Every structure is written in structure tokens, then in C-alpha cells.
Queue: 3 jobs
Job 1
Amino acid sequence: MRVAVIIPAAGTGRRMHQATPKQYLCLGGRPILAHTLEVFENLPEINEITVVAQTKALEFCQNQIITPFGFKKVLRLVPGGKERQDSVYNAIKALQRQDDYDLIVVHDGVRPFVTPEEVRRVIGAALEHGAAILATPANDTVKKVNHTGRIQKTLNRQDIWLAQTPQAFQAPIIWRAFVEAYGRDFYGTDEASLVEAIGIPVFAIPGSVYNIKVTTPEDLVLAEAILALRQQ
Ligand code: C5P
């Protein structure tokens, strides 16, 4: 079995309000992206990794993260696109031949706390069902709110799950989903939504609230706390 991982890390980090994009900010003395890559580098089930970085950060990413931390499974470093979806598509195109892979796993560069066990569970479910993602059931009551702040609807909490990554797919499924999405100019905020759009079932595997996406300054505070907990 051959499993390729795509790590989109080409965001600008607008919501972090810092000059350095969030994936390069340090957590416990190491860049967030290095923490994330380490999980996949050390997992025997993973054969290779493609990292996506902003065009202007390609050199930085190679010289400050991939080379010094010795990530040997990173076979490709490709430039990102305007949206996250464009970045992931650049990586898929760089893989070239879908026949070479059984599974393609996509994981945000800014989710450093995913565990090997969680990755294994998503891989197992994708092998069985074709497509699977890590997600957590909503604990809060979820409202649909319009631009004036007025609540339009209360959604049924039992049916609401919050999507995370990794998101894993049998190779022909993700390939087709991306080709068809671009054929229809469809944009989603994750890969699963593209697969759902072509009518292929995607399964949600219960994850952990610790698998945060480090997006805002508040997330950095949480990230330091989670790191401290893991180091105990
Ligand atoms: O923007 P969002 O929070 O969804 O970003 C999730 C991941 O996608 C981050 O690791 C970010 O660097 C990456 N991304 C990307 N290309 C973009 C936007 C985001 O690779 N154009």
C-alpha cells in the first residue's frame, strides 16, 4: 500500500495578525509546521509527503524546516494557490499519476496535535469506505446567523459535526472530485466537501478537541497549553 500525504501550509495567516504566517510561528521552540510534519514522518504507514508553501516562502520552508529537521519523507515542495483548495490541487497535480497511490491524506500544516492513532483511524476508514475525515460532534448549540447578527435558525446539534483534518481518500476519488470541482468552478473549504459534491459518501471519524487548527492568537495560547499537557 502506498499512502501520500499533502500538507497545505501556504496560507498567509491573516487572522493571526502577525507578519509571520502561523505555520512558521514557534511552539515550544519549534515551528508549528515542524511539529505537524514530525507526526507523519514518524508514522510507518506514510510513504511520502508533499508540502505546499507560499511561492515566496518555498526557500524558507526548505532551508529552515524540511532540511534542518531532516524530514526525509518530504519528496516535494510545491507553491500554493489563492485559496486552500488551489494549494491542495497544486499538490495533487504534482503527484501526477493516481495509479501510484492507494490513499491520499490531506492534513493542515497548522494542526500540530493530531496523534498517530487518529491518523491511523482515518486511513483505516478511507481504505474501507473510500473517503473519511476526522471530526468532532458539536458541544455547543449551533445557530445560523445573518449579516445583521439576527439568528435565522437553530440547527439540530445532534446532526452537527465540526470537520478537522486529516481527510483521507482513495486516490481516484479525490482526483475525480478535484477535476469535477474545477470543471464547475466549485470551491469548498475542505476536501470532503468536493467529494460529497460528486455524490460519494464520506465518513466522519470521531476525533479530539485537542486537534486544533492554530488560526488566531487565542489558539496559540491553547496550543502552548496542549503542548505542555503532552510533555507531562
Ligand atoms: O485558511 P485555513 O485556516 O483553512 O488554512 C488551513 C491550512 O491551509 C493552513 O495550513 C494554511 O497554511 C493552508 N492554506 C494553503 N493555501 C491557502 C490558504 C491556506 O495552503 N491559499
Job 2
Amino acid sequence: MESELTKNVSAGTTIFHEGEPGDCAYIIQNGEIELSMLINGKDSVFATLKKGELFGEMALIDNNFRSASALAKTDVELLTISRDYISKKIEFSDPTIRMLLQVVLERYRDIHARLHDVSESLDEHESTSANSSISSFFSQYLKLSSKLASAITHQHASHHTSDNINKDLESTSDSITKENNLKHALDNNEFELYYQPIVNLSQNTIAGCEALIRWNSPTLGFTPPDQFINLAEKTGLIIPMGQWITKQACLAAHDFRKHQNIYMSINLSTRQFESDSFMADIENAVKEANISNDCIKLEITESILMSNPELAESALNQLKAAGFSIAIDDFGTGYSSFSYLHRFPIDTLKIDQSFVNAMFSNKRSMQIVRTLSQLAKNLDMKTIAEGVEEKNESQQLDGFGCDYGQGYMYSRPVPYDDFLKLLKHDSLPVASPAN
Ligand code: C2E
Ligand code: CA
Ligand code: CA
């Protein structure tokens, strides 16, 4: 099957010609290709490449012409890597590797040009033996630059054995495929929001819920967010994805609130937070769903605050003035600077699940949870303990004055319909931890 990423080429077809500008590189998925160059008017083959190998990357790296021709020796299936993909990888790679690659390529181009000049001045006999040395030189050179290119695409230059290179190429082709699938996932309606209850610890009632995204991918199956949120951030897809999340979560909040007066927590990513349309997106979503701003809590991480404190301060003040609540997610795992607890208008601390899990096995974790609950109270903030899995944890947290708990003890994140059922049962079904 051919897609915008894969290309099938029949045996005997030229994939690209020496001297042409290059707009993409390839990884061989199946079949064999031959690389050749014209030396003294003769086509000299200098490499045969097989499944898992990369070619055509040089013209992309230095924005130059194709230094060789590529011919399909058998029927081949190729994975296409765009110029844009390579450029981004180079831009974010280690500067030393970037420089090394540039030097290697410049020398390659230089020697390529000189050898052509020299070979033209040789007689036929000299030229035949020179051609085979030249081919062997290019073959060695190809291996070297291919290692560097691979180092660039994976940003760790060390230990590049051929086994590692193959693994790198495999993971490059996986991540290109994933990125492409992710791009279409929104249009194909493959995302779904799950909802996890946030429970009032002293009353054992649902006070709110957190919207958590899932990807029902036709190729990868049911995929949790830690396997695609970073990629969505890197590629910028998080912006349209975030708009979709906000819209869906607000619509769900409207429906849920017909049954109980609960709030909706929405996770925000750094890039989304920094986008120009962010404030308008959230206000529109709330308006369209016909709910008020004060039933939406926005969960942000410490890294959002640290990466651009000025922007964060003005955006959070704006959100706060508009009536939204702000929670700090995973509190205690990042920089945990107390300075931002008074600098930013934060309503809620979400105590990271690592402290909650360790409460009964580590005295310090117990003290951290107690101190954070007390600190939040003194600062007039609410606390939510994450990852509550056991009854003794919820009791201890309630004893510390922690306001809310969220975790498998109450319920795992569940689809929309199941969450509605949870709300319709007046009392919380306490799921077993193994559920
Ligand atoms: P998070 O915001 O800290 O979300 C809580 C995570 O803890 C969720 O994982 C939830 O399923 C899990 N969890 C809840 N209770 C328990 C428990 O009792 N025990 C354990 N072990 N885990 C529990 P999930 O849904 O896989 O999400 C992982 C992360 O992905 C989230 O961490 C959040 O950073 C990100 N994420 C999820 N949905 C969204 C989204 O819509 N937008 C953005 N930007 N990020 C999201
Ligand atoms: Ca969260
Ligand atoms: Ca969290």
C-alpha cells in the first residue's frame, strides 16, 4: 500500500539522478538499491543498500545536489523522510555533531569534484583501475556520513556500530510513521477524552473530574498520552489537539453538570499555553458549551511557569480575572519553587502521586504530604492528592486536611458514558485497586 510516506518503486527504475536537487531521503523498507556515480563518463556502482538502510540524506543535509544516482535493483518499498523532518532534527541536534557533519560533507563534495577532474585526464587503462579505487573511496565515505547522519537524527553520536545504526533507523522509521499517523488522527476522529473523578475526601463525593486524552489508533491500538503528547508538542500538533481537548472537555462539563455540580480539569501543555490563540480558544469553548468559566480548572506544570515566567504571569492573571481556576500539576517533582506560589494566582496544588504512593513506606514522603497540605491551607489554596490507590492513604490524607483525592481507589479514568453512570450513582463506587 502506498501512502504519502511510503513509495513503491519497480526494479530497474531510477529513484534519483546524480546532479539533481534533492527534496527527500529514504529508508529501505524492502528490496535493494544501487548507488552509482559517473566517473570518466562511466557509471560506477559504489554501494548496494538493503532493508533498513538510509540513502539520499546528503543532499538534504547541506542543501546541495544529489552526489550519486540511485537505482532500484529489485522492487523496493521506501519510507520517505522529508527535508522539513531532517532540517528540524539538524536544528535541534548537538552543535558539535552539526559541525562535524557539515565538515565531512564539504570534504566529500570537494573530493568528489577533484576526482572527477583527475579522472578525466587519465587514459583508458589508468581510468579503469582508478574507477575501482574511487568507487571504494566513495563507499567508505558513504558509510561514514551515513553514521553521522544517523547520529544527527538521533542526537547521540556514540557507539555507532552497524547494529545500533539499524536500531536507530528502525526507530526513525517508527517515529516518522507515528508522526504521520498522529497528524491524521484528529481529522479521523481517533482521539477520545477519558474522565477521572476528583473526590472530596471528607464527604466522599465527586467534586470534579480531570479530562485525560486517549488515542484509539488503527495501527498502534489504544495508546496512552505519554506515548504521543511529547511528539504532539514537538511537531506543534498540540495546538489543534489542545483546541479539540478544550472544546470536548467543556461540552462534557456541560452534560455532567446536569447531574452534579462538578468542575472540569483540563491539562495544558507549554506550547499550547504560549500560543496566541490560547485565551480566545478557551473562552470560545466555554461559551459554546454554555457553561461558566468558574467550572473550569486549568492544570499547568511547573515547567510552564519556569520556561517563561513573564508570559505565565500575565496569562495566568488574565485567566484568573476571567474566572478560571489554576492548578499546579505534579507538585513537588519539578523546581517546586515557593516563589511562584506567591507570584502566580494559583488556586490548587496537585500533590504528585510519587509522594502519595510512598507515604506508608517512607516517613519523609508522609511528612512532605502533610507539610504541603498544611502549606496550601495557609496560603488559601486547595490540595488534590494524586494516585490514591488505598483506603489507608485516603484516610491519612483526609486527616492531614488535604481536600481532594484522585486515583484508582475511586475510579480509573473512564469514557464519557461510564463517567455519566458514575455521576448518576449518587455514591461513589469504590473500585478495587486492581481494577
Ligand atoms: P497527569 O496530568 O499527572 O495525569 C494523571 C495521570 O495519573 C493519568 O495518566 C492517570 O491515569 C494516572 N492515574 C490516576 N490515578 C492513578 C493511580 O491511582 N495510580 C496510578 N499509578 N496512576 C494514576 P494518563 O491518563 O496516562 O496521563 C499521563 C499524562 O499525560 C498526564 O499526567 C498528563 O501530563 C498528560 N496528559 C493526559 N491527557 C492530557 C491532555 O488532554 N492534554 C495534555 N496536555 N496532557 C495530557
Ligand atoms: Ca494533570
Ligand atoms: Ca499529575
Job 3
Amino acid sequence: MDWGKKNRLSQIIKPETGRTVMLAVDHGYFLGPTHKLEHVGTTVEPLLPYADALMLTRGILRSSISPEISVPIVLRVSGGSSIIGADLANETITTSMEDAVRLNAAAVALSIFIGTDFEHQTLENLALLIDMAEEYGIPVLAVTAVGKEIGKKDSRFLALACRIAAELGASFVKTYYCDEFEKIIESCPIPVVIAGGPKLDTDLDAFKLAYDAVQKGASGVDMGRNIWQSAFPVAKIKAVRAIVHDKATPEQAFEIFEGNKKK
Ligand code: 5RP
């Protein structure tokens, strides 16, 4: 791997643990003003000291985030559809590689929609993006989107999607945690991080999700709603960090969470 690409990737996936806690705030690119992301800058600011990377679009980065931060940026560069439109999967590349470089992106992220009418189009997007990103040594994060069909989150489907992303040359892949998650890891030669998904019923459920994923071989999390929709987002991200980087159990993470609620 080229020095620049390796260096950028190691800013995100920390070499000390081989893991990462990415903070995802890109939801507005198809959901619009998501609850607690109405003012992204305000939501994100207290969480930044605990995030290994920040995932968002160029519009929110430029409008809402200080250029003086040291957290590496994973730039969402796919979009073009909305939750109320005809088909969420109908995505294109929305940001040029030159703009990603201007924004000092440590990586770029794009969704693929396997099994949809737009499978070919989104895989072509990924292949084109990788060709462009390789020119600059920028890693590509492929996101195995499931759109509205959240029921598709089984290991067979997600292993297929992750493997295809790896075959096309993605540097790392983001997917969902599911039963038999280890099957995804076994057949995917690149690092896998998990999305948190919609806010879970309890904080302990979120800690169990993160714990089970890293136990089964995930390289960390790219979590959004389960952190910033929490009543105690700083306590939540600190507890997730303890699981990902410090081998905390869900119960230990819960104690950290409780202990940080008042801080
Ligand atoms: C949407 C995304 C989001 O960044 C991803 O879903 C992570 O956020 P959450 O933990 O809220 O699911 O990539 O396609």
C-alpha cells in the first residue's frame, strides 16, 4: 500500500489497537434534518475528543465544523436520492476527488446497494471512486447500504456485499452487525466496521452490539444515532471507546457510562 494511503488509514484505524471509533453524522444526506443533527456543529463538538474519525458530507463539514479540528475526516461522497424519493438506491458520486483533497479528507465513503435495481450503478460508482482515490492515495470506505429493506441484514447478504466491496478495491467496509457476523469477517479481507443503526431500546443493548461486533472480528464502529441521540452522548461515546479500544465488557462499559453521566 502506498505510504500516503497507509498513513491516512492509520489516522482512522488506530495502529495501537487495530480498531476505530468513527462518529457518523452524514445522515442528512438522504434523511434531511435528522433528530439531534439539526445543528451538527453543536452536537458534534463535545464528542470530537473521543472520536477517531468524523464521517459527514462536504456541505456540513464546511458549514458546521471548525477547520482547526485534528480528527480525521471520512467524507461521504455518494448521494443523490432522498428518503421520500422514488428509490434510495439511485445514488451517484456527489463530490470530486479534488474537493476531497481540498478538504483534507482521510478517506472517502460511498454506499453500494446490492440486490437492488441500482446494484450495477452503485458498484460502478464504487469502482470509479476507487480509481480516482488511488491517484491521490485516499482510502475508500464502502458502505453496504440496505435502504428501507432493513430486513435484509443477514450474514449471507452482508457477507456478499462486503466481499464485493473488497473485490472492487475498497480499503475498508461498513456494514451492519447480524447473527453469524463472524461469517462476514471470515470472507472479507479488508477491515470491517459496523454501523449502529436506529437507536436501540437501552444503552446496554448498544454496548452489547459494539462488544459482540469487535469480539467477532470487527475493526470497530462507525456509530451515529446510538451516540448522539442518547441523553448522555459524551458518556455514551466514552463507554463505546472503552469497548473498542480497552477491551471493556458491556457491563464495564455501562459502569463507565453511568459514571460519566454527570460530567
Ligand atoms: C448511512 C450511513 C450512516 O453513517 C450509518 O448508518 C451510521 O449511523 P448509525 O449508527 O446511526 O446507523 O452510512 O448510510
